[in-house]
Amino acid sequence: MSLAEHHYSLTVRWTGNLGEGTSSYRGYARDHDVEIPGLPVLKGSSDPTFHGDRSRYNPEQLLLAALSQCHMLSFLHVAVKHGVVVTDYVDNAQGLMRLNRDGSGQFESVTLKPQVTVADPGHVSLMAQLHHEANAVCFIARSVNFPVLHEPSTTAAAA
After folding, report:
1. CA separation for the pair 97, 153 (Å, rounded)
2. Could you tell me if 141 and 67 are in contact, meaning their C-beta atoms sit under 8 angstroms apart?
3. Alpha-carbon torsion angle 13, 15, 16, 21, nearest 10
4. How many CB atoms lie within 10 A of CB 159?
5. How much of the chain, in percent, has pLDDT values that exceed 90?
């Protein structure tokens, strides 16, 4: 196996057949399970606007989560490379999706709003550079066709 290639697989299983399949638009549930061996089943549905179950994750939320997770993990890696000790990280990410008249749609942008706490107050000035570097190496951000914006804030840990 090459270190340059990583393969991922999972199973998405539709569980929303209410007895008549897709015989009508409202006659089926959008419920499904995302199955990855060795992990808990992720219960999915569509956004409630599209007749989904609000108690389940929808693909739009999971795309936003993937971008936020990827940036955080990339940022933590970049921080280590620069000798910056991060002690806390919280991101309140937001995504904008637009629907088209033909029923299609797409994400227009995602804005990540990471709130980072660093151990050394002297490292606060490096944060814009580290977020930029993290965005440049984030696998998911590099894979989408819309802008991934950043509105970070940084504080130094109390002494």
Report:
1. 24
2. yes
3. 80
4. 5
5. 92
The structure tokens listed for 138 are 């984030």
The Cα–Cα gap between 147 and 145 comes to 7
Could you tell me the two tokens for 154? 């940084």
CA trace torsion 47, 49, 52, 53 (10° rounding):
90
pLDDT value of residue 158? 82
Contact in structure between 131 and 75 (CB atoms under 8 Å): yes
Token code pair at residue 74:
């990339």
The answer, yes or no, to whether residue 131 has pLDDT greater than 60, is: yes
Three-class DSSP category at 151: coil
CA 58 – CA 99 distance, rounded (Å): 16
Residue with tokens 């002690």: 87
Distances (CA, A) of 35 to 25, 89, 136: 26, 28, 30
Per 3-state DSSP, the chain is made up of helix, strand and coil in percentages (nearest 5) of 30, 30, 45
Q: In the structure encoding, which two tokens stand for residue 13, read together?
A: 């299983």
List all residues 6 or more positions away from 9 whose beta carbon is below 8 Å from its beta carbon: none
